[in-house]
Amino acid sequence: MTSRRRAAFFTGEAEDPRYGAVTTGDERTMLVSFLRAHRETLEIKCRGLEAELDRRSAAPSALSLLGLVRHLTDVERRWFRRDLAGQDVPLLYATADNADEDFDGAVAEPGAVAAAWEAWRAEVEFAEKFVEEAASLDVEGQNSWLGTVSLRWVLLHMIEEYARHNGHADLLRERIDGAVGL
Questions:
Q1: Are 74 and 94 in contact (CB under 8 A)?
Q2: 181 bridge partner residues
Q3: Residue 140 forms beta bridges with which residues?
Q4: What distance in Å separates the CA atoms of residue 13 and residue 20, rounded to the nearest whole number?
Q5: 7: which DSSP letter?
Q6: Over the stretch 66-116, which tens digit does the pLDDT of each residue have?
Q7: How far is residue 109's CA from residue 78's CA, in Å, rounded to a whole number?
Q8: pLDDT band, very low/low/confident/very high, at 176 (cuts 50, 70, 90)
Q9: Which DSSP string do the residues of 52-89 spell out, in sequence order?
Q10: Cα 65 from Cα 48, distance rounded (Å)
Q11: 8 A C-beta contact, residue 148 and residue 140
Q12: Would you give the distance in Å from CA 154 to the centre of its chain?
């Protein structure tokens, strides 16, 4: 049996946008760099799949790669648009009737995968612009669970959120086609 090295780059160093990550700089630069690398990791873990993105991890779990994309779309939207920017916009997937609709409704029907990626990219673009234009990391917003939160806290939380879910993505991708790597 040939052993696979999990510490290898998933796509190969030459093709991996994370390979040249920022390793020095001020606090904002470092936080943004870590979050960008985690966002890129999610895309890399899903690359080359479409219909397979809705494959569940194992019964009875609703975890799927498409569910993670939809969930992280709502997470981006909640923290950056709603809480920090104060926009009165609904989540795109989770509802009052089903807080887990981001995962439960993740079905790779025609157009659904492309729509999920389009929505995720729009939320990431909004978040990146918000962070870039923020006067400082001390900019504050209101969260319905925690009260006042700073941009610094949200960036740290987003890194933690993506790190956790990229771990799920590792396992899901390996289960789908055996692909492993950073």
A1: yes
A2: none
A3: 150
A4: 9
A5: T
A6: 999 999 999 999 999 999 999 999 999 999 899 999 988 888 887 899 999
A7: 25
A8: confident
A9: GGG--SSTT----HHHHHHHHHHHHIIIIIIIIS----
A10: 12
A11: yes
A12: 14
Q: Identify any residues that bridge with 147 across adjacent strands, giving them in sequence order.
A: 143
Cis peptide before 90 (omega within 30 of 0): no
Whether the Cβ atoms of residue 67 and residue 102 lie closer than 8 Å to each other: yes
Nearest to 130 by CA among 75, 81, 71: 81
Helix (H, G, I), strand (E, B) or coil at 176: helix
**Contact predicate 130/80, CB 8 Å:** yes
- CA nearest 67: which of 27, 112, 13? 112
pLDDT in tens, 111-155: 899 999 999 999 999 999 999 999 999 999 999 999 999 999 999
* Structure token pair of residue 127: 């978040």
Structure tokens at 120: 């995720």
Q: Cβ-count burial of 56 within 10 angstroms (0-12 exposed, 13-18 middle, 19+ buried)?
A: middle
Task: Tell me the two tokens of residue 167.
Answer: 């771990």
